[in-house]
Amino acid sequence: MDSKMRFSGRVDNYVKYRPAYAREFIDYLVKDVGVSSGAVVADVGAGTGIFTKQLADKVKTIYAVEPNANMRAACIDYCQGYDSVLAVNGSAEDTALPDQSVDFITAAQAFHWFDADKTKKEFQRIVKPNGKVILVWNTRDSSNNFIKEHNELCSKLCPDYKGISENAEKCNAFFRKGQYDYRIFENNSILSLESYIGNTLSASYALNKKDKNFRTFIDSLTAVFEKYSINGKILLLNNTHSYVGEV
Q1: What is the mean pLDDT of residues 68-85?
Q2: What's an example GO BP annotation here (predicted)?
Q3: What is the percent of the chain with per-residue pLDDT over 90, rounded to a whole number?
Q4: Is 182 helix (H, G, I), strand (E, B) or coil?
Q5: What is the three-class DSSP state of 171?
Q6: What is the C-alpha radius of gyration for the chain, rounded to an integer number of angstroms?
Q7: How far, in Å, CA of 222 to CA of 196, rounded?
Q8: Is-contact 237 141, C-beta < 8 A?
């Protein structure tokens, strides 16, 4: 399946249940990276606008570049009231933005879907001299027993599940001279059964209602949750990982 269409049937769950990025990460971008009220940003692969909205009141303009029409519509709705947000029908490889038009390029939970070589050329085209690229992911703590069992379940029942990939090697090849500033920020969340299942179903690899094993998948997720939850809640250990550099 074309990566640009993978989330078409998952928009509602994505909007409701995907977490934002750590507040300390946003503070770091403002205090240390230089994101400011005069900045122009391209948020590439903006999806439903989770990260776009977190930056919307921190910058002058943020282009929410998103190729999937359903995701882009959700982003426009989610970011209503922010005049700084401009939705753009574009992709990482073809953003539709002018040459040297942005101070920063961001990609939140998205870079792994891009064609790295084509994206690098496009980012070099649209970013201003000395502009920065910010790649960020929310990543679960895979050493945690609950998350281990969750991952094993997805590996068993979801044919499209590929496991957790490391980003360091890709970033070494992507950033200029392999140089970037890498930071980790704690971003834990507390989930109910509903939000745990909704979050899982927002993933690109998750089964949907049309799949033969969907009911088994939901029952298995419920069993894992009930095994580890306390009073109907579970602490999801999660970190925001960021990579900031030039291309």
Answers
A1: 97
A2: methylation
A3: 91
A4: strand
A5: helix
A6: 18
A7: 9
A8: yes
Please answer whether residues 57 and 84 qualify as being in contact, where contact means their C-beta atoms are separated by less than 8 angstroms.
Answer: yes
> Residue 1: its pLDDT value, please?
45
Q: Give residues with Cβ within 8 angstroms of 245, minimum separation 6.
A: 132, 133, 171, 175, 176, 179, 180, 181
What are the φ/ψ torsions at residue 42 (nearest 5 degrees)? -110, 115
Q: Which CATH number fits domain 3-140+163-188+239-245: 1.20.1250.20, 3.30.70.260, 3.40.50.150, 1.10.1740.10?
A: 3.40.50.150
Give the mean model confidence (pLDDT) for residues 14-43: 98
Question: Residue 3's pLDDT is what?
Answer: 47
Residue 34 is which amino acid?
G
Beta-carbon count within 10 A of 83 CB: 9
Helix segments in 18-95, DSSP class H = 23-28, 50-56, 69-78
pLDDT for 94-106, tens place per residue?
999 999 999 999 9
Question: Which pairs with CB-CB distance under 8 Å and at least 24 residues apart come from 166-170?
Answer: 167/111, 167/112, 167/135, 167/137, 167/241, 167/243, 170/111, 170/112, 170/116
pLDDT tens, 212-227? Answer: 999 999 999 999 999 9
Secondary structure (3-state) at 60: coil
According to DSSP, residue 244 is labeled: E
